[in-house]
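USER: Study each token:
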Amino acid sequence: QVQLVESGGGLVQPGGSLRLSCAESGFTFSSYNMGWYRQAPGKERELVATAYTGGTTNYADSVKDRFTISRDNAKNTVYLQMDSLKPEDTAVYYCKAWLSWRNYWGQGTQVTVSS
């Protein structure tokens, strides 16, 4: 019943932009912290951005000033606006929701930044 569905990935040129969306169903969205992770081939999954329930946001150093995480609790959706994309941003991006011992993951969406 719990489900997170990402969308918005694709192929973009360096310097371009993409907006990822993660739609939730099956739990009380506003009660959960939300985050975006990414995993490139052969690398560990890394935390990209977090939107906590209290409104605080946090970003990995590699994406600061380029990515923006936001959430619309009325729509049960979290977004990741990605600007000034670089080839090193290429990865599968995953949406995550968590609260204490509860953790939920989306299926991932591919982002490819290439000329």
Q: What stands out?
A: The CA atoms of residues 57 and 113 lie 25 Å apart. The chain has no helices and eleven strands. The mean pLDDT is 96.
